[in-house]
Amino acid sequence: MNVTIVDYQSGNISSVINSFTEVAKGKVNLEVTADIKKIKSSDKIILPGQGSFKSCVDSLNKINGLVDTLKEFAITNKKPLLGICVGLQMFADIGYEEVETKGLGWISGKVSKIDNQKGKFKLPHIGWNEIEIQKESKIFKDIKNKSHMYFVHSYELIPEDKSVISATTDYSSKIVCSIERENLFGTQFHPEKSDKTGLKIIDNFLKL
Amino acid sequence: MLKNRIIPCLDVKNGRVVKGINFVELKDAGDPVEQAKIYSDGGADEICFLDITASNENRDTIIDIVRKTAKECFVPLTVGGGIRTIQNITDLLLAGADKVSINTAVVKDVNFVKEASKKFGSQCIVVAIDAKKISENKWEVFTHGGRNKTGIDAVEFAKKVETNGAGEILLTSMDKDGTKSGYDVDLLKAITKNTNIPVIASGGVGTLDHLYDGIVKGGASAVLAASIFHYGEYKIKDAKEYLNSKNVSVRL
């Protein structure tokens, strides 16, 4: 199996590479690239994302043909794709970090700043929080409800269709922290930094 | 609910852990990679390396340690000490650090935080503030391990780094550091009340109750400690169970 971590020159993806390498060892062939040809021939894709919504979208757009290739992979051909953090957020139509920015439009909805209730909640939301599983998800196989995951973010994805939500976490409100729609997966938390539970989620995705 | 974090900190000098270690299970007591792994397996919420290597020539050593640690520890890794340039940050992040902690370079020029957070995102920029009490409810920022006065008010400085894009503040009381008499709770309170980003308490932990004070009385989001864990007095698990028994939520 060929799995590609999309390296579109935005943010620090070393931890994503390290964790996937650890889990993939001897099982799958892992590539880290933005090469369109290699992405097309992959069986699965991981779309990481760090920094702002705008900077991630801009970086994706900078690579000629990348957005179309990803769309063809995930939407037309319905092959498994996992977005992590801003990688998930970019699935939305629109993001409001820095300036209003168009997203990939794969999941109807928006990305806006977490309501910190006038400073009652510190932002970024950094640290370990429990996930509340909302529906069965293939990547949550053998993951207990209320498992701890590592979060670092100030913005949240608000999808219009609530049936895509596979888990939420409690921070000022119920924040969407995982989605699943057919072949499309996304986590707001960082499975690559979430210790053994996180590695299990990665393993589940690689085993799909 | 967001859990309070416990962060063991390892002081590294020329590639070796400098503060004492008594773990019986350690093969090489001075090996930072092996120690980080023990902490991570023991339930540490994050791992922090503080590079206290004096010379710049040895920067590659810490990068190598980070690279090896990141391949074995799958919890967030913060690295601080001697970071002066954007290139220093790039090197550490590429090696596998998740966050960097910057101190002197920010005191010299607060724009460095802005530049760094713009380039890498606030989530990986921690600003380390070393503060010393100068009068009742007044603290001053110091650099170079508490040797150099700056004349800058710690609370004002904390607000300034937040505005400039810091994701977290690592707050060390120079009066308390190494004393084992507990955090400077008043200092913590002053900073946590005046900022809206997470504050990591540091300096002075001698007992598990001090961790409790840092979180509950001081308002810290995370507590950092070195010697109580290094000398094997307590394991991370002991700290978590203690806090949990006092109704402080932690990741168990």
Give a brief outline of the structure.
Chain A is of the alpha/beta class and 208 residues long.
Can you walk me through this structure?
The complex is a heterodimer of chains A (208) and B (252). Chain A contains 6 helices and 13 strands. In chain A, α1 (14-24) links the parallel β1 and β2 (29-33). Chain A is an alpha/beta fold and 208 residues long. Chain A has helices at residues 14-24, 36-40, 53-62, 66-76, 86-89, 195-207; strands at residues 2-6, 29-33, 44-47, 81-84, 94-95, 101-102, 109-113, 125-133, 148-153, 155-159, 165-171, 173-181, 184-187. The longest helix of chain A is centred in the last third of the chain and has 13 residues, at 195-207. In chain A, 26% of the residues lie in helices and 32% in strands. Chain A has a 9-stranded mixed β-sheet, sandwiched between helices. A 4-stranded mixed β-sheet of chain A has the order 6-5-7-10, covered by helices on one side. Chain A has one domain (2-207): Class I glutamine amidotransferase (GATase) domain (Rossmann fold), CATH 3.40.50. Chain B is of the alpha/beta class and 252 residues long. Chain B has one domain: Alpha-Beta Barrel (TIM Barrel). Chain B contains 10 helices and 11 strands. Chain B has helices spanning 32-41, 59-70, 86-95, 104-108, 111-120, 154-163, 185-194, 208-217, 227-230, 236-245; strands at residues 5-13, 16-17, 47-51, 77-80, 99-102, 125-135, 138-143, 148-153, 168-173, 199-202, 222-225. Chain B has an 8-stranded parallel β-barrel, surrounded by 8 helices. In chain B, α1 (32-41) runs parallel beside α2, α2 runs parallel beside α3 (86-95) and α8 (208-217) packs across α10 (236-245). Chain B is globular and about 45 Å long. Chain A binds chain B through residues 11-12, 14-15, 18-19, 21-22, 50-52, 55, 116, 119, 122-130, 148, 150-154, 170-171, 192-196, 198-199, and chain B through 1-5, 40, 45, 70-71, 74-76, 93-98, 120-124, 167-168, 196-198, 221-222, 251.
